[in-house]
Amino acid sequence: MLQRVFDNLDGVQRARPPGSVPDPVPEAVLVLDDSHAQRALLQSLLSRWGHEVIVSGDPVEALALARDPRVGLIISDWMMPGMTGPEFCRAVRAHPRDGYAYILLLTSNSDGDALARGLEAGADDFLSKPFRAPELRARLTAGARVVAMQREVVEKNRLLTSALGEIRSLYSALDHDLEEARRLQQSLLQDRFRRFGNVDVSVWLQASGHVGGDMVGFFPVSSKVLGIFSLDVSGHGVASAMIAARVAGILSVASPDQNIALMRREDGSLAALPPDMAAWRLNAMILKELQSDRYFTMCLGFLNRMTGILRLVQAGHPNPVVMRADGRIEQIGTGGLPIGLIPEATYTTTEVRLWPGDRVLMYSDGLTELPGSDGRALDDAGLADLLVRNAARKGPSFLGALARDLTEFAGGENFPDDASALLLEYRDPSAAGGDIPDPSDADAAPSPDG
């Protein structure tokens, strides 16, 4: 289908070089004159010049004949019984027809006002009687050029309309495919909320288009350790979304042996790699696999839900925020280089202790760089204000309120960049109970218990 669209557009461009005039071809000519002798004279001349000639001495009959799309030129007398030449012109222009008809009036009246009225009525040119054959032929040739150019414009418009119609069909199909891709990307989020004993994890994602390059997620490592991540692929659209999906698949619980952030102990159990080592391995793999100019920023962390120790690596991603139970807000992380940008890049692990009631927010720069109605970005301070405003909310309710505040700040839901967030809420492990299902067990899968 796409090739056919290009062929149509190419046909429009090949019609003739820009600025050139199409060669006129003999047009069918309608002759209207109440004089039999004048009609016979014109028919003889026009036939000799190669035109198909249609003659009439009745203006009403001539109006019906003028609707024939073959008729490109009309020669009409000015003075006729029942209808003047200008009246005939006005009637022709008032009736719809396929293509343009070039009207030449024959007149003995050289008065300027009369000629102006003829032009206003729809005539294209005049020729004084008695006329000279060479002048008549020259004026008809000029008229034929006008008709030929008009037909070419009509044909180009037809081709363009056809091409645009097929382009719309292509866009409709593409829009349908992108909508399917959006649903698939949303399915990668697993659940929007999941409870692992004394730890709750909630996620939120909003693409700037159908699909985007942001992704957030989590995966169990063992009965006591939980992995969380937030990533943001450079650029927008399908390419970024495919890379985000690829990385999310790498960090998925569905195939723990292929999760690049995990390793097998000698006893067969799974353990988390040091976060900096996991980032290093992921960087090497992405550079080898992608071989493109795409890269992504990421936060990857492992929480021991019994001790409250969160160890994470920050690879060019915004600093995660710890919201303490007493209301304090702390930024953590050491920055670092993005993944897939520089070979042999090194990374640093950061460790933070969570206490019951503390929360951790990982997010993409689509939040802090979101422009408000005045054009200024929300920035870190603005985000902190929104976190304080919604501090009383929990889980999905917190992220939903945050999303509404961001929409209000931006003045609408159409964000210029993808936006995402992951909220981890930590409670007293002695009061919650319940282990994280072991991903080594193929029959085990984490599920919410409230």
Short description:
The chain is α+β, with helices and mostly antiparallel strands and about 450 residues long. Helix content is about 40%, strand content about 20%. The chain folds into 2 domains: about 160 residues, Response regulator (Rossmann fold, 3-Layer(aba) Sandwich), CATH 3.40.50; about 240 residues, 4-Layer Sandwich (Phosphatase 2c, domain 1).
**Given the helix and strand composition, which structural class is it?**
alpha+beta
Instruction: Using the coordinates shown, work out and report the CATH topology of the largest domain.
Output: Phosphatase 2c, domain 1
Radius of gyration: 39 Å
By DSSP (H or I, 4+ residues per run), the number of helices equals: 12
Q: Low-confidence spans: pLDDT under 50, at least 5 residues?
A: 1-6, 11-15, 440-450
Spatial order of the strands forming the largest sheet: 6-7-18-17-14-15
Shape: rod-shaped
Number of strands: 18
CATH class group of the largest domain: Alpha Beta
What's the oligomerization state?
A: single chain
Largest sheet: 6 strands, antiparallel
Mean pLDDT: 84
Q: Provide the helix percentage.
A: 25-40%
Number of domains: 2
Terminal CA distance reads 51 Å
**What proportion of the residues form beta strands (DSSP E)?**
15-25%
Plain-language structure description:
The chain is α+β, with helices and mostly antiparallel strands. It folds into two domains: 2-158, Rossmann fold; 188-432, PPM-type phosphatase domain (Phosphatase 2c, domain 1), CATH 3.60.40. The chain has helices spanning 2-14, 36-48, 59-65, 85-94, 112-121, 133-187, 237-250, 275-290, 365-368, 379-389, 395-410, 429-432; strands at 28-32, 53-56, 71-77, 102-107, 125-128, 193-196, 199-206, 214-220, 225-233, 262-264, 270-272, 296-304, 309-315, 321-323, 329-331, 349-353, 359-363, 419-426. Strands 6-7-18-17-14-15 form a six-stranded antiparallel β-sheet. A five-stranded parallel β-sheet has the order 2-1-3-4-5, with helices on both faces. A five-stranded antiparallel β-sheet has the order 8-9-12-13-16. β12 and β13 form a beta hairpin. α1 packs antiparallel against α6 (133-187) and α4 (85-94) runs parallel beside α5 (112-121). The longest helix has 55 residues, at 133-187. The radius of gyration is 39 Å and the shape is rod-shaped.
